[in-house]
């Protein structure tokens, strides 16, 4: 059974997945929200039909001092939707502070074309969220 990592953003949502043994995390895709969670939930239905997922890990965007940000409140609403729709799955959160910074460092190191960075930054961030969860457990 695999784990799915989600970097829930205002415009885009990054998705990462573990290997079958839950040892490594790989970026899967970036979903354009188009202003609606329905788009994300529909795509998650497809992903869950393709892979055996037991846990969904969502990054929680806290302020640097650890307090809850406005974005974290919106993320909590999304997590509530996940818990209602996928109540048979374990839904976890991890602190996602600085994952986007790390994703940009990775892309710079790999010399990713600046025009492509926007398309992959959320997927890489989701991968870091999932790796954080894996390392914690």
What does this structure look like?
The structure is a single chain. With 137 residues, the protein is α/β, with parallel strands linked by helices. It has one domain (2-136): YqgF/RNase H-like domain (Nucleotidyltransferase, domain 5, 2-Layer Sandwich). Helix content is 47%, strand content 26%. It has four helices and five strands. Strands 3-2-1-4-5 form a five-stranded mixed β-sheet, sandwiched between helices.
Cα radius of gyration in angstroms:
14 Å
Number of DSSP strand runs? 5
Oligomer: single chain
Unreliable spans are none
CATH fold descriptor:
Nucleotidyltransferase, domain 5
In the residues, how many domains can be counted? Answer: 1
What is the CATH homologous superfamily assignment? YqgF/RNase H-like domain
The CATH class is Alpha Beta
- Terminal CA distance: 15 Å
Give the helices and strands, then pairings:
Elements: E1 2-8, E2 12-18, E3 25-32, H1 37-50, E4 53-60, H2 70-85, E5 90-95, H3 99-109, H4 114-136
Parallel strand pairs: 1-4, 4-5
Antiparallel strand pairs: 1-2, 2-3
Helix pairs in contact: 3-4
Structure summarized in a few sentences:
The chain is 47% helix and 26% strand.
Provide key terms for this protein.
single chain, 137 residues, alpha/beta, Nucleotidyltransferase, domain 5, globular
């Amino acid at each position: 059974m695999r784990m799915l990592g989600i970097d829930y953003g205002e415009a885009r949502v990054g998705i990462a997945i573990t290997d079958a043994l839950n040892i490594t995390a790989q970026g899967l895709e970036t979903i354009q929200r188009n202003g609606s969670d329905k788009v994300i939930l529909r795509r998650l239905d497809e992903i869950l039909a393709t892979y055996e997922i037991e846990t969904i890990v969502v990054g929680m965007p806290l302020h640097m001092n650890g307090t809850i940000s406005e974005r974290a409140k919106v993320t909590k609403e999304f997590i509530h939707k996940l818990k209602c729709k996928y109540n048979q799955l374990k839904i976890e959160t991890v602190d996602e502070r600085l994952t986007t910074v790390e994703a940009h460092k990775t892309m710079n190191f790999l010399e990713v074309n600046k025009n492509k960075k926007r398309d992959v930054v959320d997927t890489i961030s989701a991968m870091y969220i999932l790796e954080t969860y894996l390392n914690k457990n």
